[in-house]
Amino acid sequence: MRETTLTSSTSTLVHTTLPSTYQVVQSVLKVLKRNSSAGRRGGDTQAQARAQAQIRGRKMAAGFKTVEPLEYYRRFLEFGAPPTDAPDKGYVVPNVDLSPLCSWRFRSGPPGEEAQVASQFIADVIENSQIIQKEDLCISSGKLAWVLYCDLICLNHDGNILDACTFALLAALKNVQLPEVTINEETALAEVNLKKKSYLNIRTHPVATSFAVFDDTLLIVDPTEEEEHLATGTLTVVMDEEGKLCCLHKPGGSGLTGAKLQDCMSRAVTRHKEVKKLMDEVFKSMKPK
Amino acid sequence: MEGAMQTESKIRADSRTEPGPRGPGCSLRHFACEQNLLSRPDGSASFLQGDTSVLAGVYGPAEVKISKEIFNKATLEVILRPKTGLPGVAEKSRERLIRNTCEAVVLGALHPRTSITVVLQVVSDAGSLLACCLNAACMALVDAGVPMRALFCGVTCALDSDGTLMLDPTAKQEKEARAVLTFALDSVERKLLMSTTKGLYSDAELQQCLAAAQTASTHVFRFYRESLQRRYSKS
């Protein structure tokens, strides 16, 4: 992974606790922003965004780094041709990487089942919540479009991967800046203007809340790995700010009644408010370019 | 399939139902089930919902690889093969959903250190595929004689742009819908075992879909019961 020096970084740590009959949870969101102009080698991409989401405070829990490598934009066909059935849409390709670094449970090699399921989940969240319009990624209809690669790398796995992935994805997407691209009429080549960059238009802010279910009665919010392992089922609710649900992911496990489901929804609404507040504070406090 | 040596029961149950909170949009498509049609697996079933058809085969309880062995219960494995192409990440995700649903109902503790494998082959896909897979898996598990604490069924709901509910949507309806929700419900208390959704919807709509799915599941379970009764009354 190419490391570029952090010339300036601002981090804000905010503590929030969820009081509950369920469980006390501490969420810490730390977003590091990279200053993209000064101190850079030529040839480095400037269109990278990086965000690290750390949940569960001091004891390092799941941490994610999202990097979107658009480094190859200098080369010819580095963007991509839009899909034939949707000529004015770009691509967003998420990939969750669970390496042996984060937990003893994973081996190196092709992505295991958990990583694939998580990648699919993130792809579904992006698709369902319409967090960015794929049309925004189109440069020239039918010919050229941006391909956004979202690599979510787990640094430390202590359960509740899906929540952490969603936070990191959101934070990173807010940080992405795409340079302006024009197509030269004569040569039909794309010209990238690195001086002019614009942020992505983030339309909604989906926030995931996960629960561990124990024997149909007990629900624990934001489970650790140990709790997940002992749980008889899990449930993840992804909500956006209007209270609309983007995803209700319950991969099997013990049954839940409608009433319990309702409890989970209200908890998800509370969680969404807290996380949104956190994120707004962090982004406001980041140094402007 | 026709004229096979083993006993097979072909049930064509026309379960066109018209219940539901809203008008005629709430009918389930015609469904049919055929059991014990394959000779090698311990249990097999083919489930048809409208034009969607899935074939399931169950092997188990059988020997398990030492690396996958669980000391106090059976290891459940689900393999889902798409109709065309190689299985990808989406299939892996579905396999996990089906596997966790089966794990919740199968009494694995009765067969420790064994493996139960469910293999699903998509024969044709015309909407509500995941629900059809769940139904086929359940019927195949019953056919194999795997002990279960309850039966389960899959129901798909689609919400279109004006909020109209449609049960068991076709592929075209799924594409045009604003949201598609698939639920797996158990037969004892109609509790929600599994849910996976696509698209945006509100909390109230979710409850409405869940209620409609619970009503529809009654019909599916009745169909299971009838088809099994008919099969065992013959032999």
Q: What's the quick description here?
A:
By secondary structure, chain A is of the alpha+beta class.
Q: How many distinct helices of chain B?
A: 4
Q: Major sheet of chain B: order of its strands?
A: 1-2-3-4-6-5
> What amount of the residues of chain A lies in strands?
25-35%
CATH architecture of chain B: 2-Layer Sandwich
Shape of chain B: globular
Q: H/E series of chain A, N to C?
A: EEEEEHEEEHEEEEHEEH
What integer value in Å does the Rg of chain A equal?
20 Å
End-to-end separation of chain B in angstroms reads 18 Å
* Spatial extent as radius of gyration of chain B: 17 Å
Give the strand content of chain B: 25-35%
- How would a textbook summarize the main sheet of chain A? 6 strands, mixed
Family (chain B): Belongs to the RNase PH family.
Subcellular location (chain B): Cytoplasm; Nucleus, Nucleolus
InterPro entries (chain B): ExoRNase_PH_dom1, ExoRNase_PH_dom2, ExoRNase_PH_dom2_sf, PNPase/RNase_PH_dom_sf, Ribosomal_Su5_D2-typ_SF, RNase_PH
Protein name (chain B): Exosome complex component RRP46
